[in-house]
Amino acid sequence: MDDHLNLWVSVPSRPPYVVQCDRDAVTEHNASCQAEGYREYQLQTDALPEPFIGNIKASVVQLNLNPAFAEENVAEHERPRFKRCSKVDKPFGMYPVEQNAKQ
């Protein structure tokens, strides 16, 4: 990742999955979303974050469904294999793929 700091290697191994330098801002934001009708805007900290995929210096960016959250993601993200794959320091950021993974 060239001259950029890779914070993905600092993501805690259990919830809340928030790096130390973001913890105060995330806590403050989520506290501000406690009122009824605003909880959907809270940042989900019980599931591993899934960051960008690709070269951060690319001239073209494809936007997908993110950010999105589904409760079933929490169980998937807690699987040891997912955690192991997600913590690997990849050249283009974190990407949950194992070389021998089966579909």
End-to-end distance: 28 Å
State the helical fraction. 10-25%
What's the β-strand tally?
Answer: 0
Poorly predicted ranges (pLDDT <50, ≥5 residues)? none
Q: What form results from the Cα inertia axes?
A: globular
Order of helices and strands: HHH
Strand content: under 5%
Radius of gyration: 15 Å
Q: If you average the pLDDT, what whole number results?
A: 75
Main sheet characteristics: none
Content-based structural category: mainly alpha
Q: So what's the oligomer here? A: single chain
Work out the helix count.
Answer: 3
Total separate domains: 1
Word description of this protein:
The chain has helices at 23-32, 71-78, 80-86. The chain is mostly helical. The chain has one domain (7-86). The longest helix is centred in the first third of the chain and has 10 residues, at 23-32.
What is this entry, summarized?
The protein is mainly α and 103 residues long.
Features:
0% strand; 24% helix; mainly alpha
Topology:
Elements: H1 23-32, H2 71-78, H3 80-86
